[in-house]
Please model this.
Amino acid sequence: MLDEPTASLDPDIADKVRKLLRRIQSERQITMIYTSHNMRDVEEVCDRVLFMHKGRIIAEGTPQQVKDKFNQTSLKTCSSASRVGGDVLAKDKEEAR
Model:
């Protein structure tokens, strides 16, 4: 389990960490749970993504599936689009509450 593994790292070192994590994941065929607010990291490192709001999953799938769900071109904009003033804008809004 990795919690914000590239937080506060310089961009070059963060890039090396992301590459190292992908290499370890591939070589050892392991699952990593990666929590982050940095959507660039999530998009580069993660095969599957979960967005949560108030303890409930509001979106899950591949990065592309999540982008499609919110009709966005990046996970960063999905994060913003999924919440406005604390309200959930997911397609299944009622289910997320």
